[in-house]
Amino acid sequence: MYTVGDKVVYPMHGAGVIEKIEEKKILGETRKYYILKLPCGDMKVMIPVENSNDVGVREIISEEELKGVLSALKDDSSQMPSNWNRRYRENMEKLKTGDVMEVAEVVRNLVRMDRQKKLSTGEKKMLTNAKQILLSEIILVRDIGQNEANDIIDRAI
């Protein structure tokens, strides 16, 4: 169980700080929820405490692990299906894992693809979402602002 002040990642939403843990009655059921404040977009997310492991909530990565992520952003792009539909599904599966290396791979590949030929609207939205997830974790690991974190990603790719 996490405590107030812990920095965690919620897959598909990004990293945040647990602001409080409170009981709420929703649909007639009283449960404990983590109230997670995300650094990007000033958003708050409620995560049921009892489901947190099942949905893949994890602690943020260390500075050492972040170096590995930045190195992965510099790596060559991985092979992706030419069919955008299949590519979209594969990338979505990677994002759902909550694994920061998978998220970094999606960001790297889509940024590079966008530079060569413009992405479809769906893939642009996916890139924006994936980049937000990665940004939020870098912000919390390094304790920096969003613009600085964005520059780190852009320089690495």
UniProtKB/TrEMBL annotation:
BP-aspect Gene Ontology terms: rRNA transcription
SUPFAM superfamilies: CarD-like
Classification via SMART domains: CarD_TRCF (SM01058)
Protein name: CarD family transcriptional regulator
Organism of derivation: Aminipila luticellarii
InterPro entries: CarD-like/TRCF_RID (IPR003711), CarD-like/TRCF_RID_sf (IPR036101), CarD-like_C (IPR042215), CarD-like_regulator (IPR052531), CarD_C (IPR048792)
Residue stretches making up the CarD-like/TRCF RNAP-interacting domain: 1-111
Pfam families, alphabetized: CarD_C (PF21095), CarD_TRCF_RID (PF02559)
Domain of life of the organism encoding this protein: Bacteria
